[in-house]
Amino acid sequence: MPKPTHVHQLTGCTPTPLAGYLKALGILRLVATQADEHAQGWWSGDVFFLRTTLDSEHLEDFFLNQYRPSPLVAPWNGGSGFFPKDNQSAISQLCQGKATRLAVYRETIAACRDVLSNLGLKEKPDGGSKERLLIACRANLPDDAVVSLDAAFVLTDDGPKYPPLLGTGFNDGRLEFTNNFMQRLLDLIDPETGHPTDPAAEWWSEALFPDVCNNLQKNAILGQFDPGAVERAVNPWDYVLMLEGALAFATATVKRLESSTKGCLSYPFCVRAAGIGYGSSAASDEGSSRAEMWFPLWSNPCTHSELQSLLSEGRVQVNGRPARNAIDFARSVSTLGIARGVDQFIRFGFHARNGLAYFAVPLGRFEVKPQPQVNLLCELDNWLDRFRRSATADTAPSRAGRALRQLETAILALCQHKGAQQLQAVLIALGEAEATLAVSRKWRTDSGLRPVPLLSGNWLLECDDGSNEFRLAISLASMFSKAVGDFRQHLEPVVVGGRNTEGRSRWVEWNEDSSAERQVVWNAGRLEDNLSAVLQRRITDAKRHDERSDDGTVLFPGRALISASLDHVVAFLKHKTDDARIGALLRGLVLIDWGGVKQAQTHKQIDRSPSLSIPDGMYALMKLCHSPRPVGTHSVQLDSVIANRGISGNGAAALRSAARRLRGSGLSPSIEVASRSADAIRRITAALLFPLNQADTTLLSQLVLTSVPTAAIDS
User: Fold this and answer.
1) What does the pLDDT look like over 129-138, one tens digit per residue?
2) Peptide bond before 628: cis, by omega within 30 degrees of 0?
3) Which terminus of the chain, N or C, has less C-beta within 10 A?
């Protein structure tokens, strides 16, 4: 008959600070390995729950009277108690005592002293002697001690490596963990008899179920595990159970720890730091941080062995490769590329905050939930990795660092909150990253950085929020012309080529030809000015390339895969759009592979219904002179004078030129005189660049022509 189980709500074990999280793991580990192998633990409402056959009385009795401490030693550290100048009080008392529950600890200390003697080491070793000591410890210490060695270091071909959770091998700055661990044990256990000390029971209750306790240790320090406890008294149980919990990560380290850039290690749920995604974030945090660890929170009861399996499989994958940094980890969490059963991860960064000391700083939480939009980033994987390496190099311009932070901040937000605008933020940041590359020619050349690769049409579908700004930006981004080119070349010196046929793929490269510089007319100025500059550039290039229609007329090179509607253009003319957002969206949308976008991917965006808005008559007249198709049966010869006069603010002259051009093309304008301010004329001229659909072009004809052409206009 199975024993009855009891559920304990351990309110003293919380996910933050890190000491509280590790304390929970320590309790589960010790109960499972020394008292009840079927014990289970889980998190709920930021509190740890323990299910075990031990009731409250027996749970307390186990820790006070039966718990056998893990033999934590670090004879390679100064201050560890093994060298003449160290504080040897605790280690001496442990060795001189006779308590049975401390027997393995005494055996481990004796083995360490034998190793030091055999190596002739009488002071803290360094360099090659330290590595020899580490090897000898693994070979000669008792099996129970090897667990702590696995948590503290791993020997590789490149020498010993130290997981960030335990500093540099049980040491952080001036704080030596193992000697402090021994001191805290003596606060709790009589080394001679093994009985608990007088205050141990009170401290136990306070550690698990926090109450007011006035008998805490003012000289106890939790160090990096609880930065807030630096100036306050600490419960010895908190320190002891915290380090016992850290050993839960030990077995997962073996055969999994690898060297990588910046000294970061392939350790369970451990990645390189990213100085983004939290209130005090700064790029400098990356250089002053050991690494980041993402600690799992789970709501379903699990045993210690199940937890060990989770930790041993803690190498998070992104697109088939190990996660390298916090951005990769967030992507993996959002696409469920991790072990199942985890509800959240709490993110900690090990940041230098006090001289040589590091603090485990909580950086936020990430829920484990599906976010399929994040899969779109797989198209950019290689480019993102190269851009990050180059943007964080010492030779990178400051603008590159800002662009990287903007991009990674947007990706982190997308990983937690799906939606068109979240993905738009990523697209906008990609556009800014390419703009940075475009203006930093020497840096991009030295770094070998290519333009942002062509994005699939899936981005188009997922980014559509139905806004005027998005529709206007997408109409410009999808503009194309065989002779003059597409819109992207007006923003950056690039060339897009290839066809989506078998054996050939679409590609984009930098265009280093001097002619490319003439086509780049977009800058950081106002949207109106940039639209007008592109309008003039395309008119000039159309005439230079002598791009003619079937009847020999030079038309405006403004065809687009997805047209705007008059409703959107009228909103722009009436200043009811966010110009800055249109420009930002456009920078991102030009990155899409418009030559490879399928009709099914544009169906959602194409509105074939007539517009409800009535545009300005002057705009209508001027727009018919800049149509990429014949107006009915009449082709309107492209005339640069109209746009030039409109850009100068001379509306009367621009309107007269437009009316004259329409009459010369066989059309009869119904208006030839109108009065508009210079600012209004310039905005009307800028709006001529937006491509229109068939229905709206017909509506313009009906509005300003005395006789409407009857021939249909192809969409």
Assistant:
1) 999 999 999 9
2) no
3) N
